[in-house]
Specification:
- The chain has 202 residues and is mainly alpha-helical.
- The protein has one domain.
- The chain is 80% helix and 0% strand.
- The chain contains eight helices and no strands.
- It starts with a helix and ends with a helix.
Length: 202
């Protein structure tokens, strides 16, 4: 079993198109820059998302493709939000009611979308694909608002995305999400530390 997995992994890497490698590189740069609260990160995020949108659509992950499309839009919003004079936001926590409402909406929306996708037969993972897309949208909005918990959402999204992409043959993209998972974990503790230092200085 481990040998079969390793062979599949190596074969997937060998067959990876250049576009997927570019998406991986741009995605890594995006996460590192965003973790450091650098505005340029949104540019690389938009590039990575645009490429992954096409790859996800080809891999029968339509909701993930829509999610990537929303990331492109979010990258434009994030660049704008972080560019305005006096727009530098302090790191903060989102209130629990916001999280509860967001999670309920995501689950209900995903159940509805899964029904449609199942009927159309266009998704390999109707509910999971939809839920990841919805949580990713919430997490992206939280990044733009500089909420610490965005990293916790990304940890969940990245973990599930590893499985989705690998299952559909996008091996290098799944490796990208492994790296995203590690960076998201580091990002959470990084922003949490900044929040605590910020609170002590007030």
């Amino acid at each position: 079993m481990p040998e079969a997995f390793a062979n599949r992994l190596l074969e997937g890497i060998r067959q990876t198109p250049a576009a997927e490698w570019i998406a991986v590189a741009a995605g890594l740069i995006y996460v590192v820059l965003i973790m450091r609260q650098r505005r340029l990160g949104w540019v690389f995020g938009g590039i990575s998302a645009a490429i992954l949108m096409v790859l996800a659509a080809r891999a029968r992950l339509p909701m993930n493709a829509l999610l990537q499309a929303s990331y492109v839009i979010a990258a434009v919003y994030g660049w704008w939000a972080w560019s305005r004079p006096g727009s530098e936001r302090p790191i903060a926590f989102w209130h629990l009611r916001g999280h509860a409402l967001a999670l309920v909406i995501c689950v209900l929306a995903s159940l509805g979308l899964a029904q449609l996708l199942t009927m159309e037969g266009t998704s390999a993972f109707p509910f999971t694909d939809s839920l990841v897309a919805c949580l990713g949208l919430v997490a992206t909005w939280m990044v733009a608002r500089v909420y610490v918990e965005n990293w916790l959402y990304w940890i969940v999204v990245d973990t599930v995305s590893i499985y989705l992409f690998f299952s559909q043959g996008l091996v290098v993209a799944s490796i990208l999400y492994v790296l995203f998972l590690v960076i998201a974990t580091v990002g959470f503790f990084n922003w949490l530390g900044k929040y605590r230092r910020q609170a002590r200085s007030q």
